[in-house]
Amino acid sequence: MTLTRLLASGLALACAAPALAAETSFEWRAVGQAAGSYATDPPPRADRWDAFAGYGVTGDFAVTSDSGLKVGLTATVGSGDYEKSLDRPGNNEKLTLSEVFLDVTSAYGRVKLGDEDGAAKRAVDLLPILVGGQMDGFWTRMPGARPPQYHLGRDSDDATKILYETPRLAGARAGLSYAPERDSLVEDIKKASLLPAEEDFWELGLNYRGDAGAWSYELAAGYGRGQSDTPGIADTESVKLAGLLLYGGFSFGALWYDDGDSGRPTGRFDTSGYTLQGTYENGPYGATLFWHDSEAEGLADYRAYGLGLSWRARETLTFGLDLVRVDNDLATPARGQDGWVGTLVAEVRF
Question: What are the GO cellular component annotations (predicted)?
Fold first, then answer.
């Protein structure tokens, strides 16, 4: 039985569950972003000015039995969230179902079935991103400014999968996910990706949280492997390490990934990178400094660094500003970005 059929069976079970439940609940949340960007030195035939928008509306329906077993259904309708951090909208589509999954939570952990991020991404997505987005921002969509790989490295994104996460015990949590194909039920993540899709995509994630006096910290590791179904294209194998250190309003994050030649001609164009980020938030104000360096050997040598600012003007409205220096040296006749990019973002959350 395919994951799609399993998901349909699970949805039917979730709909039948309320008669047996002690409690039902429904919650919803929404996010919308509009952004404008300006580049000082765009590639030939590319505009200096660009505009972006993204949105998502999520509904969570849950049924909790007398024994504490929780069965839930989550669905997000919006513009997609391909290669975005866990709670941020993208602009992959005008209207799509970017995430829909059934989850069952008990004392033994949580199982999800459907379109959801994989175990490795859920473990290492730790960077303290402000509204402008930093390496997750819309400015990376500008012509010539796109990095050679997503800053978290290659993963299964929102492919239809089964995911299991253990309870957090003594600060530690582990996750394991499997996607038969890197393909989503509705959202077209194949079209958005520059690399060929994989089959049998496994991800493993490990995450640990702890405290040391006034400091808090989080450490994570992720591993992903997918089988190439394209002759001459290498299998995907990605390793990721991440850390986050918190003190008062300060947070310091670091992430490193190595994708090898994942999804590229076998033995060529090895890809790796790292991101460093420091953020301070005080009431409605936030500021961050970040540095990203990545390379696709023989294709691109990429560096981006800059400043991000945010201001929560209302409870539901926040403005973000990024000023970013991009140096994207391509080993092809096409010219990458080499200059400054500024992005102004307005975000609404409910």
Answer: membrane
